[in-house]
Amino acid sequence: MIWYPFTLQYEPEIPLKIVRAEKEFLYDEAGNSYVDAVSSWWVSIHGHNHPKIIQAMKDQLDRLDHVLLAGFTHDPAENLASELLKITEGLFHKVLYSDNGSTAVEIMIKLAYQYFQNQGESERNIFLKWNVSYHGDTIGTMSVGGDSVFNRVFAGLFFPTQEFTSPNCSFCPVGKKPDSCKTECADAIETFFKKNPKRVAGIVIEPLILGSGGMIFYKEEVLQRLERISKEYGALLLVDEVFTGFGRTGFFFAYQRAKIKPDLIATAKGLSGGAAPIAATLVSKKIHSIFVIPEPEKAFYHGHTMTGNPIACAAALASTKLMYEENRLDQVALLEVKLKKGLETVRKEFADLIRDVRVLGAVGVLELEVGEQSGYTYPGNKVLKKKFLEKGVVLRPLGNVVYIAPPYGISDDSLEKIFRVIRETLAEIYSGK
After folding, report:
1. What is this structure's pTM?
2. Under a CB-based contact definition with an 8 Å cutoff, are residues 127 and 204 in contact?
3. Residue 338 binned pLDDT confidence (cut-offs 50, 70, 90)
């Protein structure tokens, strides 16, 4: 009946039917509970069914369900835009709404491309990307993503890009250690700019964490160098904050942690706390000013039926306010400490099996040592996921990478259960116990 996402159609798994959720827990039709250790694809940052978000949506339903946002407006869209611009401390000038992260990134790409087209710089049509990156599943976002099982079959539809080896501070691609690193991983990008000073429209990046590519972390200094390079050569810096936005790295946005000023950012997922589909692309004044012109053919013709839906905006506004009211960033700082402690315990117990442990903000990662079988299609992934679920924890390893990205206010008991279940599962699968 349903074609479930990211699910093999040959002998597909029978999906678990969830009937309700609360805080960090999901409940199935038999009444069993599960700790949602991945925030249901990273969206439920406040936990499930937060009463303030639900009430905001109910209140909005009593007033206005939907109205097109072309030629009309409403309070939830205006108030949310105002709040987003305040959070970003005046760096951005306009908010363009959409309904998912892929589209928010697609809008960044289109804006960057047309920004130069409007100025007659048609030769600026190349976007730079990293080989281990994921920005979504539209044709545009797949074009700026790295080669992977997600997009490989569609390569013939992509527009031209230039790919570079991704930074990776756990396994440096140029053999450096953190204390000797001078961001040499960005040398090739700067060299490309020197040879093609007026060809690049923008650099498209996930800041600090390469999410679906394997939860790979890299230094803030890399972002700072990319900012300097893009500004020096007049290109734009496009930052995909779909995953990292709304506190996941310990700041509202990862670019703030890195102390850089991108030209465009895309945000989604935690924006509504998982209660409604909504995304936003934030646009700097420099970009917007190029579209404030009388020629109609130079307008930005992009929109969606549900753009700025009042109910979704009300949910996002409530979610944004909760970041302050319930001290989410303080929770993330504390969660970071707990994740480091818990995962280090796992590392000590399974030293021969663990290739790497890394933690940044509310993301904890165990990378398993499985030899040449590593990667997203690692066959043991299915077994791990099944075992975790049987023990009452929702974890969806990215191949041989087991990661935890829970709601920020997760209880200590639930966190300890996650660590215990990981230890038990690793012992059963890899130690023959």
Report:
1. 0.96
2. yes
3. very high
User: Quick check: 135 pLDDT over 70?
Assistant: yes
Which phi and psi angles does 331 have, rounded to 5°?
Answer: -65, -40
Amino acid occupying residue 28 = D
- Other CB atoms within 10 A of residue 105 CB: 32
Q: Decide if 273 contacts 293 (C-beta within 8 A).
A: no
What confidence tens digit (pLDDT) does each residue in 183-231 have?
999 999 999 999 999 999 999 999 999 999 999 999 999 999 999 999 9
